[in-house]
Amino acid sequence: MRIGELAKRTGASERSLRYYEAQGLLSPSRTPAGYRIYAESDVDVVRHVQTLLAAGLNTAFIKEVLPCMVDTGEGLAPGCPELLPHLQKERARITMSIDGLATARTLLDGVISATPPDNTEYEAWVARRTG
DNA sequence: CTTCTCACA
DNA sequence: TGTGAGGA
């Protein structure tokens, strides 16, 4: 099938499909005219890529683990045992990221609730809109 | 009409 | 990642 059909069947944009290819996640053959020809199995590959991308993994990591992933009908499962450590490492990375955002939010909360030394303008504004 | 590459107010 | 140009 050509890129248009694969896009329709997976919900991925043609743009994304070409991007996945550039990242080595897909390697469609070409017609003499240069049109990309995808295999039926690529539909699943694209779905897996979308799942992993949504799970916060980058294309480089996906490229490594994709061949070890197996479809369970429900979702994806680790096809190789030596995959778990890497997956857990990714999980840890996401946790770090969340912690960073949490402290950022706490800091911002502090700024939002802080009382300015000279609050005349601030209070005038509050008074104006609270009536 | 569909796809391709390349470039970017 | 979207979008549009310019071509096949």
UniProtKB/TrEMBL annotation:
Give yes or no: UniProt keyword DNA-binding: yes
Could you tell me which CDD domains the record lists for this protein?
HTH_MerR-like_sg3 (cd01282)
What highest taxon heads this organism's lineage?
Bacteria
Domain HTH merR-type per the UniProt entry, residue ranges: 1-68
Asked if the keyword DNA-binding belongs to this entry, the reply reads yes
Q: Name one GO molecular function term.
A: DNA-binding transcription factor activity
Q: Show the InterPro entries listed in the entry.
A: DNA-bd_dom_put_sf, MerR-type_HTH_dom, MerR_fam
The coiled-coil segments of this chain are none
- Recite the UniProt keywords alphabetically: DNA-binding
Output the PANTHER family linked to this UniProt entry: MERR FAMILY REGULATORY PROTEIN, REDOX-CYCLING DRUG-SENSING TRANSCRIPTIONAL ACTIVATOR SOXR
Q: What is this protein called?
A: DNA-binding transcriptional MerR regulator
